[in-house]
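Budget justification aside, the reviewers requested a transparent look at the raw inputs and outputs of the sequence design task funded under Objective 1. We therefore reproduce one unedited record. The lines immediately below are the structure tokens for a 135-residue chain.
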């Protein structure tokens, strides 16, 4: 896993009160899965609300989100408690598809943005698009 991606994600998109602990968890082999799993049910608390540009359970079907994906189809890194996809690098559109089908939380980190998909539950899941310049 690219440590720079984790540092960028935490320092840019995570609420200040959670940064130190989360960064410690992500860089610890033993605590990494638990740290990422916190985005399953606590994303709202962990994310910097000032950076949230879009939020909804059906985000992929929003025209503004689809336009954003098409405009930013760069290679992104995925963070997830699922070891099969944790650390993968994929184009943004493909990463969104992978995240949509994963039952676990998935964080997609790009340059200047990230998308966070909480864990899939019976009631659906909450999805967020955060941008560096959203204030």
């Amino acid at each position: 896993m690219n440590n720079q991606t984790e540092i960028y994600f935490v320092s840019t998109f995570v609420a200040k009160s959670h940064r130190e602990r989360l960064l410690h968890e992500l860089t610890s082999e033993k605590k990494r899965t638990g740290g990422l799993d916190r985005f399953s049910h606590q994303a709202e608390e962990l994310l910097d609300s000032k950076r949230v540009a879009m939020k909804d359970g059906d985000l992929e079907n929003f025209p503004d989100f689809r336009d954003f994906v098409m405009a930013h189809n760069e290679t992104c890194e995925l963070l997830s408690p699922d070891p099969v996809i944790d650390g993968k690098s994929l184009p943004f559109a493909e990463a969104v598809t992978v995240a949509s089908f994963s039952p676990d939380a998935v964080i997609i980190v790009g340059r200047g943005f990230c998308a966070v998909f909480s864990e899939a539950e019976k009631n659906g899941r909450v999805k967020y698009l955060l941008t560096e310049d959203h204030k």
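The beta strands are 52-56, 75-79, 89-91, 106-109, 113-117, 127-131. The first strand starts at residue 52 and ends at 56. Computational costs for records of this kind are itemized in the attached budget.
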